[in-house]
Amino acid sequence: MYTLLIADDEALEREGLELMIGHAMPDMFRFLHAENGRRAIQLAEEGRPDFIFMDIKMPGIQGLEAVREIMARQPGAKVVMITAHDYFAYAKEGLALGVRNYLLKPARREEVLDVLKGLIAETEEAKRVRDEQLALQEKLSQLLPLAENELSLMLMLEYAQEVEADQLAGMLNLQWRKGYAMVLSFAKHTPKEWASFQVAKKEIYDAVKQWVKPGLSCIVSPVVGHQMALFVPFPPGRPGYTQRVIALEWGERLRSQVEERFGLPISVGIGSIREGWDGLSRSYREAVRVCADEQDIVSVRHYDDIAESSGRPAIPLDEEKKLLDALLRHDKPEVTERFAQLFERLEAAEPRHYPRLRGDVIGLLLYLSRGVEAGDGPDLIEDLSACEDPASLRASALRRLGGWIDGLRERKERSRSHVLQRAILFVSQRFKEEISMEQTAEYVNLSPYYFSKLFKLQTGENFSDYLTRLRIEEAKRLIAERSLSLKEICYEVGYKDPNYFSRVFKKSVGITPSEYRQQTE
Fold first, then answer.
1. CA gap 439, 376 in Å, rounded
2. pTM score, two decimals?
3. pLDDT digits (tens, 9 = 90+) for 316-326
């Protein structure tokens, strides 16, 4: 039901309009009556009518003056002016105020109803558009946290593909690609305290988002294992040292807020400022490395400060790549040896600081996980974070490396099997035609040389022998049916020369096609 305010100094005019409209459009309107401009303003504010019929000439506050006052308070009000005079000046001023239409007294029934139907249609369309916008806004509000989680996990697990990351950043309206990572690491003490942390994870995540979003405009990751990460933009024009101080202040503020509200000790690691998605992933690894533990006096650390004070070089990128290359070649002895060398180097650099050693190993394995497309980043972080000493960390990492090698081998075997199945299906459908090994290799996107080796390895026979066997088996079946001549069978199974077909058949079966037919009689 709509509310219609009729403002006119003549009661008969008001009542006549109500009767006319109520009879033509029953149960559609609630009517309000105003005998002058002042009363129209009051009722418009109190009743918030959907539509207003306003007479221009009324005692006291005139119609246009009342419209101006109503429009100032309710800009979306739909007003129709009613006048006994066709004054252009009134029409011009009314249009400037936002009046929707004019009716001349005495208003005819059809004109009034047409105006109302137009206003109703306009109102319904506006309502439909608003409902659609609200529904879209609601869907977007549900999708944005998922997009933020996905992008943050991409950066943490180092599998941020340029196009996908850009799409997610677009959804989140992120206009920056340069920044740093901050990692909040929650200490693990007794099993009871760890259980309490697991229960409070969601509340901690919500609280941290509430604290940091207004001031940092950052991406906040979900809690993975015992850590969560923030990816913070670097404001253009701000000196790096100033940003380092601000980051440390934020880290200390978050540490204090978490410990005060949840009673959980945490350490904070901050990575250096880097550019691009890969750079942000690198900053995250740095932040993980410098997370302090409960024995440290300082519980908020910046990677640049640690690197400058220790002078400790990171693992050379070429050493990481050599280890990844050995993984991709499934060379378990080389993988074990190279990882052992890197682990010993890291352990020697951090002889009394196990958390930084663990952070380095987690960062290294995240890089390798991305390279072998293992897709087990969250599980990896949780698994290695649970290790409490270098020995268990090393053993757990080696088990994971071994599992990746086994998985790569299985994937390769499945891929080979799939390729062979496609090739065999292709041959079984085409063996009656002129078909070659080169055509089949091209069909499965392999080089003829590699396809020949793979086919022999998987089937135990070379391609030409396999094709011949298919053709001869089909020829034997057709001969036994006795519905085709031997010459017709020759062409049917893919041979163009009956004499050649006879020689191949005899070499394979031991007798000629004619002799085989006699035996089947």
1. 39
2. 0.47
3. 667 877 888 88
Q: What is the spatial distance between Cα 219 and Cα 231, in angstroms, rounded to a whole number?
A: 5
Nearest residue to 80 via CA among 110, 50, 109, 108: 50
Select from 50, 56, 57 the least CA-distant residue to 3: 50
CA distances 247 to 232, 269, 302, 508, Å, are 9, 10, 8, 80
- Comparing CA positions, the residue from 37, 25, 28 lying closest to residue 2 is 28
SS3 346: helix
Residue type (1 letter), 228: M
The C-alpha atoms of residue 119 and residue 96 are separated, in whole angstroms, by: 18
- 408, with CB counted inside 10 A (0-12, 13-18, 19+), is middle
- Residue 311 has a pLDDT of 47
33 contacts 6 by C-beta, under 8 angstroms? yes
Give the H/E segment covering residue 82: strand 78-83
How would you classify the pairing of strands 2-7 and 29-34?
A: parallel
What are φ and ψ of residue 18, in 5° steps?
-60, -45
In this structure, which amino acid lies at residue 491?
Answer: Y
- What's the mean pLDDT in 436-441? 87
Q: State CA 65 to chain mean position distance.
A: 54
Lookup: tokens for 444: 């499965």
| Whether residue 157 has pLDDT greater than 70 | yes
Sheet (strand 101-104) strand order: 29-34, 2-7, 51-55, 78-83, 101-104
Q: Where are the beta strands (DSSP E) in 287-420?
A: 300-302
Judged on CB neighbours under 10 Å (0-12, 13-18, 19+), 268 is buried
326-352 confidence digits (pLDDT tens): 888 888 999 999 999 888 888 887 666
